[in-house]
Amino acid sequence: MAGATNGGQLGSVPAQVPLAVQKPAASPLASGTSAAMRPVAKRRGTMVRKAAAKARSSTTAIKTINLALQGGGAHGAFAWGVLDRLLEDGRIGVEGVCASSAGAMNAVVLAHGLVQGGRDGAREAPAKFWRGISEAAALSPLQPSPVDRMMHNHSLDSSPAFLAFDLLSRLWSPYQFNPMNVNPLRDVLEANVDFAALRKQNEVKLFLCATNVRSGKVKVFDNPQIRSEAVLASACLPFLFQAVEIDGEHYWDGGYMGNPAIFPLIYGCDARDVVIVHIYPLYRADLPFTAQEILNRINEISFNSSLMREMRAIAFVTKLVDDGKVSAGSLKRMLIHSIAGDDFMRTLSVTSKPNADYEFLTHLRDVGREVADGWLKQNFASIGSDSTIDIRATYL
Question: Distance between CA atoms of 315 and 379, rounded to whole angstroms?
């Protein structure tokens, strides 16, 4: 889970959307029209019924997307809210999810909920998971100070324990200050996710990103490889946790090389729509001046860099397709969408990322729900036909 110091379908049955269909005018057959007119009237009635059925189908049809979930420590609760609103809407299905760090946690919890209880289970599971995160964090000395709570800025700026730990993590490595490699996230994950069931399920395709420490390459764990170690590897900030060993290789946070990666969704899924749920703001108008602000902005740029590079490649391919320079069907034209609460995220201190106070987490959830609701109202009609974000203006 990203810290402060450093850096398929969703349910098989769509929710029914009522649609009022105006009844056709009364048939002349009702008032004794001749038998010769009856075949014509019958055909007209059949056409009306088919048109009504088509209208209902277009209204209730599930639109399938892929999700790309960024990490960001406790700020990942924003994505919890986004997912909750998309599930509640009932018109969207998810084929695949690619995620890093806190996003990887949201991804496996979402998939677990789908396996256990469909859409309702997929909404209940994250609520239980984030409550568990908050309860585990309550045992930590890293708590908001009375000043922080009075300011209601959700930060740990005045927390003596946080300030001491921040200094300690700059002087000692996790191999020194945590030689037993204790990670409370493991217990919360394993208490809330049936990983054996996830490896067998086909409700949603999972792709979890981690960074190979030795090669510097991105490692993508897919469904047969999903277990708690893969999630912990995806969320392993090297200044806070020891590198996670899996099959003889060691991994750090996936955000360094894919926050998240998009290519698994391009190659591994049929759906063309990718909805990126942003946690790290892309743009800040104000220049950072303090050491903390500078470090935070470095982290934001670093954790967005791999995504920016992939967006450049997607923009290039999109232009080739649109200009007719490649044969039809030889390249997939992706449709990119973005759900981001940058205006809100820019107001948060970097020290709020390890703040797992439940009031803060639910506040992030509520903001995520509100942003997703606005996105649905504005962009749902474009899913399946158009990108709803200007890739060049936003990422290039």
Answer: 20
Instruction: Please name which of 304, 257, 279, 261 lies closest in space to residue 96, comparing C-alpha atoms.
Output: 261
Helix axes 77-89, 102-137, angle to 10 degrees: 110
Q: How far apart are CA 2 and CA 98, in angstroms?
A: 16
Question: What phi, psi does 260 have (nearest 5°)?
Answer: -95, 175
Q: What whole-number distance in Å separates Cα of residue 308 and Cα of residue 185?
A: 29
Output the pTM of the full model.
0.84
- In eight-state DSSP terms, residue 327 is -
Max CA distance (Å), the chain: 96
Lowest mean pLDDT among 23-32, 159-168, 173-182, 266-275: 23-32
DSSP character at residue 371: H
Burial class of residue 34 in the structure, from the number of CB atoms within 10 Å of its CB (0-12 exposed, 13-18 middle, 19+ buried): exposed
Tokens of 7: 């850096």
pLDDT exceeds cutoff 50 at 239:
yes
> Which phi and psi (to 5°) does residue 100 adopt?
-135, 150
Name the packing angle between helices 358-379 and 77-89 (round to 10°): 40
> Which tokens in the block code for residue 383?
């899913």
Question: Residue 8 corresponds to which tokens in the numbers above?
Answer: 């398929």
Q: Which tokens hold the place of 108? A: 């496996």
Query: Residue 97 pairs with which residues in a beta bridge?
Result: 67, 206
| pLDDT over 80 (residue 383) | yes
Please give the structure tokens belonging to residue 281. Answer: 């703001």
54 burial via Cβ count (<10 Å: 0-12, 13-18, 19+): exposed
Distance CA 158, CA 142 (A): 11
What is the C-alpha radius of gyration for the chain, rounded to an integer number of angstroms? 24
What's the pLDDT at 44? 56
Strands of the chain, DSSP E: 63-69, 92-100, 205-212, 218-222, 244-246, 249-253, 273-277, 335-339
